[in-house]
Amino acid sequence: MKRLLTLCIVLCALCSASAQGVDHARMNQFVDNLMARMTLQEKIGQLNLPVTGDIITGTAVSGNVVDQIKAGQVGGLFNMKGVKSIRQLQEVAVKHSRLGIPLIFGMDVIHGYETVFPIPFAMSMSWDMEAIRNSARIASVEATADGICWTFSPMVDICREPRWGRMSEGNGEDPYLGAAICRAMIEGYQGNDLTDRTTMMSCVKHFALYGAPEAGRDYNTVDMSRVRMFNEYFPPYQAGVEAGAGSFMTSFNTIDYIPATGNRWLMTEVLRDRWGFDGFVVTDYTAISEMINHGMGDLQTVSALALNAGTDMDMVAEGFLGTLEKSLSEGKVTIQAIDQACRRILEAKYKLGLFDDPYRYLDDKRASKEIFTAEHRAAARRLATETFVLLQNKDNVLPLKREGKIALVGPLANTRANMPGTWSVAATSDRYSTLLEAMRRATSGKAEVLYAKGCNVCYDAELEKNSTMFGREMRDNRDPKAMRDEAVSIAQQCDVIVAAMGEPSEMSGESSSRSQLTILDAQRDLLEALKATGKPIVLLNFSGRATVMNWEVENIPTILNVWFGGSEAADAICDVVFGDVSPSGRLTVTMPRNEGQIPIYYNHLNTGRPNPKWFTKFTTNYLDVPNDPLFPFGYGLSYTTFNYGTLTLSGNTLSRNTLDADNHLTASVTVTNTGSCEASEVVQLYIRDMVGSIARPVKELKGFERITLKPGESRKVTFDITPDLLKFYNADLVYDCEPGEFQLMVGPNSRDLQTQSFTLK
Ligand code: BGC
Q: Which of 55, 56, 57 to probe ligand 1 with, by most ligand atoms within 8 A of CB?
């Protein structure tokens, strides 16, 4: 033990702590020396990641962790909160295991820590990369102040499947935007120096394609062509590698009939050989042992399969710990494969500076000063206001004036625990405001806010119980009619009704798939009763996915989708409802008219019989619903109006609308705020490749700029079109562009676009 400590001290003098990144030669030397001293069992121990915290997402839990740490059988732990408890276990590792190798402490820090930002799906609606980067930076400052140095984020699974509850954790349906957000998040978490005590290692998840489960059921089979994987689902993961993510997490699903965790093509050929990833791969929760249910063999077989595929760390399953030694003796895995995985985990610890100082993230003075600060909360509130999407605002019911009487009703109006949204592991909800509290604060002395819950989430108590787990229960046992009557009676006394409805926060997230995406029965009945009062109604729709809202769009004049806005959601909603901030969120998902349209997404291929309208015999359509969505990707209103000038193109050397392979073209449009309040607009660029060696989508997002304009102000927005933007993976999975004609489209959403053509020589 003493000898190792001496070795560590000498070698740690060599440790790189420079802002310039890691000195690989020194790191290799350090890890070589350490590994030379490790037994096989200790190497395998590094590959083991048990769970110790309160948050348990599977059926398995780990026991006996302290003894395992002492025996050198644990590489890291996750979802433990607080410096004190983390320090205790780090001390066990450093002082009581033979080699004193520090543990890595991870957590699902998904959208903030105690200062909770909007759920990732909502954050994507802001299209504000700077604010998203800053949210990750703040999450990192708070989490590291509390002892965490590794986060299981960003989640970058492209999702066109709103039945799947985990749409809430990703960035919507678009690969270009998803890649940009992935980069921003990693930059925010990792900064440019992982040894900095305020940065943490990111983990890109869930690799891969987890967002495309059949029928929208969580963990289900994924089957898609490789061309689609590479062009439409892989870009955010690849962006994660390019941004230097320290780790990746496997997904639960099968790909080409092989579970991702045991899929060598995916984990080695694509991730490492093609993209050059040099960090470590951790499984998702018990993903190794779940391969038994997938029919891949017993625990020993599936553990060997995972290691041989290129998976390095086993989360909770204890398949590596329990079977790799035997597999080695039977020739089913090699010592090189075990060494490789162990090395990658030790390198991660080295990069985090843990060998230099295992207590680096365990400063007990930081938490009280750096967590849930006024500055962090202000950033979360600001970003939340940018995520709300105004879907319609007939008669300009919004913004509300701070006067008269306002009826606030609905099951989401007075709940604290549901405000932060799913996967807010570190949240301290008792410190967050309910919407009712925030609204009374925002109108204090000016308007009166009357409140009635009006209904439960739904009539079915069992469904409500399953949608409000983890301390978020909210069932009211009064008679449904009495509750509704109470709401109607306060509505009748008021000038306007604000209905806070939708999904409670655990109705989306993991294991929260839905087959019907409409507003639930009890809430719809309440809305109908409220409508009968004849008062203007504002519907605030809380949700973690795209919902189906035909009835609401026809019957309720104003709809603001507020998703789940985080710890500051309530105040942020008031900022927008009372017009201090104009809504500027833009949909990053296509909103379907009904569940039968799913999957529906803007960047689809044409058929041979395309039909943009409703029914024409022998064309691509339904008998009973139009092809187009209720609201298109990119859509969102504000309290002002924007005018788009004429879209103009200018090539560099050739004609106005031609570019060649080492050239570029610019597209510009002048946008003017023609209304009466300051507001932000997201100017969007789409491109269509008219002829290709494979069928190409009808349009693809290739640029965007979020601008803020004062009333009357104009801004020229310019996009640089380079051949790089025109590249795609062809049938041989070669990434290149093909000469020919392209359409370039610019506008406020994926539907309302101006089009120009250009040619690539
Ligand atoms: C989830 C992951 C998460 C992990 C650890 C799993 O159930 O799929 O996203 O990071 O649990 O909590």
A: 57
